[in-house]
Design goal:
heterodimer; A: 283 residues; mainly alpha; MetI-like fold; 2 domains; 14 helices; B: 287 residues; two-stranded antiparallel ribbon
Chain lengths: 283, 287
């Protein structure tokens, strides 16, 4: 707080405080970048260590590039199945979220109709609720309709998490594509559907893909509903959570590393859209 | 049929129909069901499940730990995200790279974040190894001792701040982008220093984004679960963890639903509070 007075007093001679300010800023950035990256690096060191290295004391900060921990993880009973389940649930969530969200988003973007605001509000409202809790009553319902402990049942719950985001992202995406392009296609003889397919869809595709990846990551990372709803068909998160008390260290760390890899790859793929996605999703 | 589909009146409703049906089936119906489960027994309305919940010795610690974690974690996250956002917007080079790195935890699940910090904090972990290497400690220390509730609390706070500051950052950076540069420049012309500009110009204009970030993060903070499960197990009870163990381990859906109602109620209460407390009264006049 005292620096406020000094900066103001020194305002005429700007050059000096500025370069020292730059230094402070650069070191702050470096510290914060390290704060984010070092913990991830250390988990990777563990995942790429031999089983002996993971339990060694004191620990080496350099990875051995030994695949024993990962091999141990891959061959552990239930792991390959859990990995596959995670991919299937996340993939299905992605398809459902886009399939349901894209038409609704298009409607919000292109039409003014009574009830549009009510629908938008209902979508926004879902965000004020801890959605994974809705998995509790659904366990009972799913048993009744035969969806208990299935990939589809869990994907339906994950879609409640991801679809509201998809609707809002899609609405804003379609709004950014000029309506005139579509109208031009209609005057050239296209129906609404073929105009959409030939004109709007190609322009919207990268954004739709980004929204889909977003839905995938939401599902891939979800723990609570997955752990409540699956018993035999566990996802990777449910498997790791439920084996916390019994699993040896190498399994935990390799599992953690495997859990973050797809998420990081996808995040890298959508980095361009990240801010528009989140900006929209959280307006 | 074709004509009906392309009619301007019907088409939008057809387009929102699948999403609406889905939300009705998987959001509104389960929501009503959770309320029914929590408040009814075979004989009708009852508060017995809430009594069972409250009589359990873990309920009060779970409630206070959850609220305490939110109270400590959320302000740290908002402050840290503000610092990160201001740094990033002032960067001349490498802005995109730094921003990307800052947002990496966004893609990491709470379970993985818990495991990451477990690797650092466990007895033979990296923090102990580094401290030992520096000669600070003589040997492995049990940092996650089950008897040391305060230590477990701090570990969860650190992991949560590490993991979930990114979402606040993204919301704030998006909000900063909406503030016209002219305000800041004008204040600079009139001789306001960087701190003064931040507190008198940027922060007030950032209020809508701050409100969003606060509401979202607070609700998510009440859902804290996997990070606690990894770092503290059952030794630091939280509401979501108790819900899970009543549902899954004790197989009592009724009490689990009562817990769910408690989490829903405090989430709703805090949302309403933030909407009221941060309500922008100037905007109404403008609109």
């Amino acid at each position: 707080m005292t620096s406020l007075a000094t900066t103001e007093a020194e305002a005429p001679t700007r050059a000096e405080p500025r370069s020292s300010g730059r230094l402070v800023m650069a070191s702050a950035v470096i510290v914060l970048v390290a704060w984010v990256l070092v913990p991830i690096y250390l988990l990777v060191v563990n995942a790429l260590g031999s089983v002996a290295a993971v339990t060694a004391w004191p620990k080496s900060l350099v990875p051995e590039f030994d695949l024993a921990s990962l091999a141990f993880f891959a061959n552990y009973a239930g792991v390959p199945r859990a990995l596959l389940n995670s991919f299937l649930v996340a993939g299905l969530t992605m398809v459902l979220s886009i399939g349901l969200g894209a038409p609704a988003g298009y409607a919000l973007a292109r039409f003014r109709f009574p009830g549009a605001n009510l629908f938008r509000l209902a979508v926004l409202m879902t965000r004020a609720f801890p959605l994974p809790l809705l998995a509790l009553p659904l366990t009972v319902l799913f048993i009744r309709v035969g969806l208990d402990d299935t990939i589809i049942g869990l994907a339906l719950v994950h879609t409640t998490l991801a679809m509201p985001f998809a609707v809002l992202i899609m609405a804003s995406l379609f709004m950014s594509i000029p309506e005139e392009l579509e109208e031009a296609a209609w005057t050239l003889g296209c129906s609404r559907l073929s105009a959409f397919r030939k004109v709007v869809l190609p322009l919207a595709l990268p954004g739709i893909a980004a929204a889909g990846i977003f839905a995938f990551v939401i599902s891939w990372n979800e723990v609570f509903a997955a752990a409540v709803l699956t018993i035999e068909n566990k996802t990777l998160t449910a498997f790791l959570l439920q084996s916390l008390d019994v699993s040896p260290l190498p399994l935990k760390f390799a599992g953690g590393a495997v859990l973050i890899v797809p998420a990081l790859l996808f995040l890298f793929a959508v980095r361009k859209y990240l801010f528009s996605l989140w900006g929209i999703a959280n307006r | 049929m074709q004509r009906l589909l392309s009619s301007q009146k019907v088409l939008p409703y057809l387009l929102i129909l699948p999403a609406s049906l889905f939300l009705a089936a998987f959001f509104f119906v389960p929501f009503v069901q959770v309320v029914l489960e929590a408040f009814t027994s075979d004989e009708g309305f009852t508060l017995a499940h809430f009594r069972t919940m409250a009589d359990d010795w873990k309920f009060m610690p779970a409630l206070s730990n959850t609220l305490g974690l939110a109270l400590v974690v959320v302000p740290i996250q908002i402050t840290l995200a503000l610092v990160m956002a201001s740094l990033v917007t002032r960067l001349r080079r490498g802005r995109d790279v730094v921003l990307y790195v800052f947002t990496i935890p966004l893609g990491i699940s709470d379970l993985a974040a818990g495991l990451i910090w477990f690797a650092l904090l466990e007895q033979n972990g990296f923090l102990n190894s580094i401290l030992y290497g520096l000669g600070v400690i003589p040997g492995p220390q049990n940092l996650l001792d089950y008897r040391n509730t305060a230590g477990l609390f701090v570990a969860v706070v650190v992991a949560e701040v590490w993991r979930a500051t990114a979402i606040v950052l993204v919301i704030l950076v998006a909000g900063l982008g909406l503030i016209p540069k002219e305000y800041d420049e004008a204040a600079e012309v009139f001789g306001a220093g960087p701190l003064k500009r931040f507190f008198l110009i940027t922060l007030p204009l950032l209020r809508p984004s701050l409100q969003t970030a606060l509401i979202l993060r607070t609700i998510l903070a009440f859902e804290v679960f996997a990070v606690v499960a990894v770092l503290a197990g059952n030794n630091l009870p939280v509401l979501m963890g108790e819900t899970y163990s009543w549902q899954f381990d004790l197989q009592d859906h009724k009490v689990a639903s009562a817990y769910a109602i408690v989490i829903l109620a405090i989430s709703l209460a805090f949302t309403v509070f933030f909407l009221w407390a941060l309500h922008d009264r100037t905007r109404e006049a403008a609109a």
